[in-house]
Input
Amino acid sequence: MNAIDRSLPSIRTDWTRAEIRALFNLPFPELMFRAQSAHRAHFDPAKVQLSTLLSIKTGGCPEDCAYCPQSAHHDTDLKASKLIDHDEVLTAARAARDHGATRFCMGAAWRAPKDRDIDELCTVVEDVKALGLETCMTLGMLTRGQADRLRDAGLDYYNHNLDTSPEFYGSIITTRTYQERLDTLSHVRDAGMAVCCGGIVGMGEQVEDRVGMVHALATLPKHPESVPINLLVRVKGTPLEDVSRVDPIDFVRVIAVSRITMPRSMVRLSAGREDMSDELQALCLLAGANSIFSGDQLLTTPNPGDDRDAALFAKLGISADAHAGGR
Ligand code: SAM
Ligand code: DTB
Ligand code: SF4
Output
């Protein structure tokens, strides 16, 4: 008799769009079963990792991303500000750590940082790391040289999202190409940092665009270590302020298909939790999301905050863990 093959299915980066489309079209119970099986093969389903965000340079961004309150192309209520003080970053990082976050993510509303910004940011990375936190930054496009310098300073993760499918992308952003995003991702990867890359759901895209987005992520040369799935936060003054809401079950499907196709990645239930019911968040966690942003603010918009998250975790019997129980 043949020995039973107990090995885990291999991690695939050769997914076809047809395969991913077929996953999206599965009956919901079958999709959830497959997502949970993939999740449990690699993680503890009762553990969730916490990251906290801080906007270190807010607003006035030259890019025209239709979803973003920080774009100078849109007339939102946001006040633009310069790169914040080093000490202010450290105070926020200490508070995040004391509230259970294991990763501190710093975001700047830039198209790309200048080399002199990198000088300053390298010292920030060193000091945040010294607090015992993992570090992540999202600063726009990077050159290979800038990625090397941030890595040398100890930056663990770089966040740079593909945002949507290659076909829908041009309806959302015209000032930066999809290829430029892929180039930054390869600089980050080649520099040896971990990649955080995901996208946004609810921008008026078709299901096929969600297929295309997950396909683009799951066929990168190596899967991103973190995959943030954001539900659009519709901000007044942005071109997407009145876009219709996505069906919550369709949002859960994006989480589940991401989990199945990138089984070893941390899938982060990211922006949009403020407007989600506990039941929807629970479904996302059951579908394989195993990381969230903690704290009462994302970059510029509200997030549920520690009390609501603690109540949700208590109800679900879920606890925080730096690696979501990953092996
Ligand atoms: N400026 C940098 C860049 O875009 O490369 C980094 C910061 S940017 C705010 C990081 C990501 O936040 C975007 O790629 C997008 O996926 C997400 N994001 C921005 N505004 C959002 C919104 N209103 N709702 C959901 N996600 C949003
Ligand atoms: C990501 O994918 N989501 C985070 C993080 N990466 C930087 C940002 C969400 C921003 C939501 C809108 C705001 O608060 O400005
Ligand atoms: Fe600028 Fe980033 Fe917002 Fe686009 S998403 S407008 S690049 S801050």
The radius of gyration is 19 Å. The longest strand covers residues 47-57. Strands lie at 47-57, 103-108, 134-138, 157-159, 194-196, 199-201, 226-231, 266-269, 291-294, 319-320.
